[in-house]
Amino acid sequence: MTTEPDSSADAAEPRGAATATAPPEDPPPAGGPAVAAAGKARVGAADLIFKNLTRTAGLGLLALIAVIAIFLVLRATHALNANTGNFLTTEEWFPNATPPKFGVAATLYGTVVSAAVAMIIAVPVAVGIALFITVYAPRQLSSVLGYIVDLLAAVPSVVYGLWGLIVLAPHMKGIQLWLNDYFGWIPLFSGDSVGRSLFVASVVLAIMILPIVAALSREVFLQVPIAHREAALALGATRWEMIRVAVLPYGKPGVISASMLGLGRAMGETIAVALVLPASFNISAHLLSPAGNTIAANVANGWGEANDIGRGALIASGLVLFIVTMIVNIIARAIVARRREFSGSSA
Amino acid sequence: MSTATVSGPDIDSDPDRLRLRGQTLPRWAPLAVAAGAVVVSLLIYLLTPVDSEIQIVLMAALLFVIATTVVSTVVEGGRRARDRFATTLVYTAFLLAVIPLVAVLVSVISKGAGRLDAGFFTHSMNGIGARDVGGGIYHAIIGTVEQVLLASVLAVPFGLLVAIYLVEYGRGRISRVISFFVDVLTGLPSIIAGLFILAFWVLALDQGFSGFAGALALAVLMIPTVVRSAEEMLKLVPNELREAGYALGVPQWRTILRVVVPTALPGIVTGVMLAVARVAGETAPVLLTVFGTNLINSNPFSGEQSSLPLYIYSQAGQPQQFAVDRAWAAALVLIIIIMVLNLVARLFAGRNRLK
Questions:
Q1: What's the CA gap between A152 and A210, in Å, rounded?
Q2: CB interface of B with A, residues 255-314, below 8 Å
Q3: What is the pLDDT of residues B172-210, one digit of tens each?
Q4: Of these four, A29, A91, A131, B224, which has the most CB atoms within 10 Å of its CB?
Q5: How many CB pairs under 8 A join A and B?
Q6: Which residue of B has its CA nearest to A58?
Q7: What percent of chain B has pLDDT over 90?
């Protein structure tokens, strides 16, 4: 993953080289090939300057990504060299001790599990909301609801964290006890006690990404050609059959990519999780036990008391998160790229 | 194109004589089932020691879905029952989702309104401990406004130039690579942006914590949003406008700056406002780069500052009720700011929509 930004840094560095090679490959301006011939000598200079200004900005963006990767790696290696544990398999997190011993295993586990559970809860409900707004709701209501979902997607995560900590967590006790009592035979729901657990964090994350996934899915469903829907209905399909044969197949790539973006959000979410979870460093299959941590939450919680090695260790764990979210995003993009016409990623 | 004509002498007088439609449930049936489900769940709530409201709501939803499907299967048959099942699922999903989302807003408003007074906006947290009443968000508002403005100043021109390159000049591999990495940057977790500025600006360049460091981190988060929205808007500008410019002998760069960008401007402004609304609520990057303080610091270039999300985070983490009350009030202020930005952006977009 790190090789790609490196090569782009090479491309970004020789700015003069780009300028020098620009004139021969100067493409004709959009839709106006006649202009290229007219007065090239006189207006060429200003055009060239502006073009290269914009190109430099574009290459600067690549350089930015390269710089992000390079600095995270630089800071991380410093700490990783001092680490006495295996960074990928150690569960403990004692980067400030001498000798430092830390690993990303427990926090990575928490990140993946909480995001996965959040997705299991949120995606079906979000698709339901999107279907309700686009297919079931009356027309006037649906545009209002669309607005509201968009607005809810903009509520900052710290507010969800505050709400999750103070309002939701106490209310979740009953349902967690119930799951523990009746489904305790499933290892996920077993354990001796319940509390501010990974499960609660997952529910907060699910509520948080719900509007995002719903808003993007709604956009995709809105793009289903009316003719497809009407054709299905005209053949005698019920509303559900129409959704199944016309709406869902057309919207599937868009919904998958919306879910992937939601997954990326859930994994990168910091503050909501940091507020809800008690920070602890162990891998436990018991979803309901008051334990768990995620990479992002650990950075927010742990960096205040971190020394030099400690900060490096947090940056190293951040690098892991960066790579994981990048993979998720690339998969999402690949799925959308296969059916280009509805990239729902512009919201 | 042959149509099967159904001809009968008295088809108008008795439309259902031919039984073209099967037996259907009356329109009130789903409502009745829903009411029944709610009543049964309430009875369970009152009569048994189940003590969680969440469970009752889930139980009512489940009862509603099952009962509707069963009734529909019996009366209407398989296909219609499946349709009913999907319909009830979608309605239930919507209602279930609305409950927590509305609950978030309701609790922020009800718990936050109590502390909202003039003093809350005009005081900082100087000398106010977690156990004390009073205190305010003056310093946090200053911090948020300065950081977000600085971030916009950095990110908007840069993002706009990248978008112009991608739409007006970008051909071939470089622009595809740039476009790809814009998407990668869109998915960048906000805490990574904070860690990057921490590693780069605060630690490597040894510039210390400041509002400007926070603005840098926020700018990293803003750039992809600005690029994407500006790109979409520039693409919407009809090619005829560009061609008209060229036909008059106007150089390409002047055509872009004088014709294309002004035409797309309302949409770009909307995109920028949405980006501003998003970064104004970011906590994690600000936490790592601005550090937070209780004092008023109106100079973003030196020393720690505060910001609204940071203020909420630090107050919410304390066990005392006064601190939590301040967190709710600040959350209300933050939500109002973001909602207003969003609404204005959308109204603006609606009024100036490109034809």
A1: 9
A2: 255-257, 274, 277-278, 280-284, 287-288, 309, 312-313
A3: 888 888 888 888 888 888 899 998 898 888 878 888 888
A4: A131
A5: 308
A6: B162
A7: 14
